[in-house]
Design goal:
One of its GO terms (molecular function) is methyltransferase activity. It comes from Neomesorhizobium albiziae. Keywords: Methyltransferase, Transferase. InterPro entries: GcvT/YgfZ/DmdA, GcvT/YgfZ_C, GcvT_C, GCVT_N, TrmE/GcvT-like. This is Aminomethyltransferase. This protein has 414 residues and is α+β, with helices and mostly antiparallel strands. The chain folds into 3 domains: 141 residues, Probable tRNA modification gtpase trme, domain 1 (Gyrase A, domain 2, 2-Layer Sandwich); 81 residues, Aminomethyltransferase beta-barrel domains (Alpha-Beta Plaits, 2-Layer Sandwich); 114 residues, Aminomethyltransferase beta-barrel domains (Elongation Factor Tu (Ef-tu), domain 3, Beta Barrel), CATH 2.40.30. A 6-stranded mixed beta sheet has the order 10-11-12-9-3-13. The chain has a 6-stranded antiparallel barrel with strand order 14-17-16-15-18-19. Strands 5-6-7-4-8 form a 5-stranded antiparallel beta sheet, with helices on one face. Helix 3 crosses helix 8. The termini are far apart.
């Protein structure tokens, strides 16, 4: 096609991208972005599933204490969400995931995981049973092609609804009081892992008593068109209850204290693993309790049960308590200070537990049957020079802290 002079002129008038724009990463705004931007003081952002999300908003230390002493709001809209519905929805979810979905009653949610045919974990997440034939699956990674392939032969529909549904996590001791004062009638009846719908602005909001902090808390899901009005409703009711918005750094500290793991942080999901020795079975990352060997066939069943029978599992995920107060993040773990046996994936000095804690993946039998004489290698910055520290570590149960208010029924009115 010939290019005329007029076309050249019109092309020259089109806006051009600056050279640096070639390297820009465009990030989706959250449905709550106007409210979050208005509160952001640190300009500390990261990318979560393609969305712009805050690592911190005003002070990461105080944001952590907002979780443990007040009511903290964390935007979970970027969390990947799938709507699964149809006559075979229960059978499909039961085939897909490790736990027995027939035991999951409408109005309940459970923590679960799913594997490939070799028994390697693809992801973990929460499965909400909204009604007898409707579910919501929430997770870290996107799995639509896998879910659609797995749905062949089932009378079921699977749709991603990440961009259609906004979500907030409301966590902390005053979270119940905030919801009560916001007018969510009978919210005190929700027990841990219960779900219920409540009216909001001519629509409805789904509230579950769930969270990622090990504290009293709730998660709220609403159509994106009602997102900002839900935010305003919570913050108006929470003014006298210390409600504050937080970023991921504070949430991450709380989840480590709760002993909870994050996909592609504490373990590599099967679809992201480049090397075969990075793949993990559920029992190798602390998810063996989910495997229901009594139910019918599910993805990975044969491989998981065979590994148990053959005792061929090579790794174990453990909680560690480490001497001193310097976090051992990404430290190498040793046996007798000589043999490398694993790596720390997450570590903090626990402000609530008042101890140095970590989550680590170790090579069996270390951390399994051999738990004595374990050490971690920490490099601490002292006066602009790294100092190598070898600190003793011991295997301890998770969660590292256990708060009674998380499971109290009815929830306490702080």
């Amino acid at each position: 096609m010939a290019i005329t002079a007029s076309k050249i002129k019109s092309l020259s008038l089109q806006p051009r991208f600056a050279a640096q724009d070639h390297f820009r990463m465009l990030r989706l705004p959250s449905p709550f972005q106007p409210r979050i931007d208005a509160l952001a003081r640190t300009e500390d952002w990261y990318t979560w599933a393609g969305y712009k999300a805050p690592l911190s908003l005003w002070d990461e230390e105080l944001e952590y204490f907002a979780i443990r002493s007040q009511a903290a709001v964390f935007d979970i809209s970027p969390m990947v969400k799938y709507h699964i519905a149809g006559p075979d929805a229960e059978a499909f979810c039961n085939r897909l995931t490790l736990r027995d979905v027939t035991r999951l009653k409408p109005g309940r949610v459970h923590y679960t995981a799913w594997c490939d045919d070799a028994g390697h974990v693809l992801d973990d997440g929460t499965l909400f049973r909204l009604s007898p034939d409707r579910f919501r699956l929430c997770c870290q990674e996107r799995h639509l092609p896998w879910l659609l392939d797995s749905a062949i032969g089932f009378n079921v529909s699977v749709e991603e609804e990440t961009e259609a549904v906004a979500g907030l996590a409301l966590q902390g001791p005053t979270s119940f009081a905030v919801l009560r004062d916001a007018g969510f009638k009978d919210i005190e009846k929700l027990k841990v892992f219960d779900i219920a719908e409540f009216p909001h602005e001519g629509g409805s909001v789904t509230i579950s008593r769930t969270g990622f902090t090990g504290d009293l808390g709730y998660e709220l899901f609403v159509p994106v068109g009602l997102a900002l009005s839900l935010w305003d409703r919570l913050f108006e009711a929470g003014r006298l209850h210390g409600i504050r918005a937080i970023g991921y750094t504070a949430l991450n500290r709380a989840r480590i204290e709760a002993g909870l793991i994050v996909a592609n942080a504490d373990f590599v999901t099967a679809e992201h693993a480049i090397r075969t020795d990075r793949l993990r079975l559920p029992d190798e990352i602390g998810l063996g309790f989910m495997v229901d060997a009594e139910k019918g066939y599910f993805n990975g069943r044969r491989a998981i049960l065979a590994a148990r029978a053959n005792r061929s599992m090579k790794h174990v995920l453990v909680g560690l308590e480490i001497e001193g107060n310097i976090p051992a993040e990404h430290a190498i773990v040793y046996h007798r200070q000589k043999k490398e046996i694993g790596l720390v994936s997450a570590a903090i000095w626990s402000p609530t537990g008042k101890r140095n804690i970590a989550i680590a993946s170790l090579s069996r039998p270390y951390g399994d049957t051999v738990v004595d004489d374990l050490w971690v290698e920490i490099y601490a910055m002292r006066e602009l020079k790294y100092e190598r520290l070898m600190k003793r570590a011991k295997v301890v149960p998770r969660p590292f802290i256990k708060l009674e208010r998380r499971t109290a029924n009815p929830p306490a009115d702080f």
